[in-house]
């Protein structure tokens, strides 16, 4: 198959993506558009269908129905040239524990027509000092960075990161985020990240799709999602008799204006808490299985 070169800005395009395991529906017709150079997070709780989605996009799983194009080709028919344009962060070092870090990178580089220079990769992933270290002696965080180095050695246009920072300490996580941002901002790599870590999605992603029970319940930039949330602002204040009060409202300025109007002077303890991304997420995760309720741009189509 000749790889179709995708000239449009859509790197991932899915319509009505459906997956059924036996008689269990796991993905219920997902629509997705991921654009060139963006960091896109698929966020959802355990069992939401994130890995299933990603494995279908990577060409490792056959979908039950729907239309999917990744870099212009159907992943089920992706050939070696197409695979070479995709970076997968696999835990391949497990089979190469005795290799030295630089040696392993140099070895994987031989699989690609235009690989990155292993020394440059070591610097990019912060592993220069570990170049001569045996792979199975690396810490968990450094191993994961090596996974990323192996994932990008072939200069992929699209990088899949499936829950990449599970088990990282805060510093390793921050360094990893800087690395992913650098790949996207400086090198134009498109990144599809799956995570159930809200802070990670908020910190890294240009856009987030919230996948819950096999449906995309909301999609947008982190601030759009927080703003357009069905979750409402919370106004807190202390009443005249000294009791703390709180009220949820879609129109907090009106409530504050009313409180001022009714008060003799300043309102003690006044606080307005805007809905956060976490409010939206928890709302999506906990709401009843009702498509219409609180669906915020439920198809991940547009920026
Ligand atoms: N091979 C399979 N056969 C049957 N059911 C499967 C298979 N793989 C996954 N599932 C089911 O599909 C659903 C979605 O799983 P998936 O691994 O895609 O979710 P996830 O969002 O990646 O979850 P997690 O965050 O826990 O990794 C789950 O209910 C899971 O049990």
Structure classification = alpha/beta
> Biggest β-sheet: count, sense, barrel?
6 strands, mixed
**Poorly predicted ranges (pLDDT <50, ≥5 residues)?**
1-7, 288-296
Second CATH tier, the architecture of the domain at 1-36 and 45-85 and 190-230 and 278-303: 3-Layer(aba) Sandwich
Q: What series of H and E elements makes up the topology?
A: EEEHEHEHHHEHEHEEHEEHEH
Distinct helical segment count: 10
Strand segment tally: 12
Specify the overall morphology.
globular
Quote the beta fraction.
25-35%
Bound molecules: adenosine-5'-triphosphate
CATH class of the domain at 1-36 and 45-85 and 190-230 and 278-303: Alpha Beta
Protein topology:
Layout: E1 10-21, E2 24-35, E3 39-43, H1 50-58, E4 65-70, H2 80-83, E5 86-88, H3 101-109, H4 118-124, H5 140-152, E6 158-162, H6 170-187, E7 190-195, H7 198-204, E8 207-212, E9 215-220, H8 222-227, E10 233-238, E11 244-249, H9 252-262, E12 271-273, H10 277-286
Parallel strand pairs: 3-7, 3-8, 5-6, 6-7
Antiparallel strand pairs: 1-2, 1-4, 8-9, 10-11, 10-12
Helix pairs in contact: 3-4
The structure holds adenosine-5'-triphosphate (ATP).
Adenosine-5'-triphosphate (ATP) binds next to helix 1.
Task: Summarize the structure in words.
Helices cover 31% and strands 25% of the residues. Among the domains are: 1-36 and 45-85 and 190-230 and 278-303, Rossmann fold; 232-274. By secondary structure, it is α/β, with parallel strands linked by helices. Mean pLDDT is 85; it is low at 1-7 and 288-296. The protein is built from 10 helices and 12 strands. The strands form 3 sheets. It has a 6-stranded mixed sheet with strand order 5-6-7-3-8-9, sandwiched between helices. Strands 2-1-4 form a 3-stranded antiparallel sheet, covered by helices on one side. A 3-stranded antiparallel sheet has the order 11-10-12, with helices on one face. Bound molecules: adenosine-5'-triphosphate. Pfam families: ABC_tran (PF00005). Belongs to the ABC transporter superfamily.
């Amino acid at each position: 198959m000749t790889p179709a070169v995708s000239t449009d800005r859509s790197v991932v395009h899915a319509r009505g993506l459906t997956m059924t395991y036996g008689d269990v529906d796991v993905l219920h017709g997902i629509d997705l558009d991921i654009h060139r150079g963006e960091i896109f997070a698929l966020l959802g709780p355990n069992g939401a269908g994130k890995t299933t989605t990603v494995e279908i996009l990577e060409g490792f799983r056959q979908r039950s129905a729907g239309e999917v194009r990744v870099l212009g080709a159907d992943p089920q028919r992706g050939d070696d040239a197409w695979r070479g344009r995709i970076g997968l962060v696999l835990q391949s070092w497990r089979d190469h524990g005795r290799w030295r870090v630089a040696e392993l990178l140099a070895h994987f580089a031989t699989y690609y027509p235009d690989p990155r220079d292993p020394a440059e990769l070591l610097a990019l992933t912060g592993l220069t000092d570990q170049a001569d270290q045996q792979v199975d002696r690396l810490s968990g965080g450094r191993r994961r960075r090596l996974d990323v180095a192996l994932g990008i050695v072939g200069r992929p246009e699209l990088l899949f990161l499936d829950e990449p920072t599970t088990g990282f300490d805060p510093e390793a996580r921050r360094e990893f985020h800087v690395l992913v941002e650098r790949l996207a901002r400086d090198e134009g790599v498109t990144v599809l990240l799956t995570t159930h870590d809200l802070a990670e999605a908020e910190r890294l992603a240009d856009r987030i799709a919230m996948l819950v029970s096999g449906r995309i319940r909301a999609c947008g930039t982190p601030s759009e999602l927080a703003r357009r949330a069905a979750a409402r602002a919370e106004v807190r204040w202390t009443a005249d008799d000294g009791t703390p009060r709180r009220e949820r409202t879609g129109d907090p300025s009106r409530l504050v204006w009313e409180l001022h109007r009714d008060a003799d002077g300043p309102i003690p303890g006044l606080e307005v808490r805007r809905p956060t991304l976490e409010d939206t997420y928890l709302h999506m995760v906990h709401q009843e299985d009702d498509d219409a309720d609180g669906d915020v741009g439920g198809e991940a189509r547009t920026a």
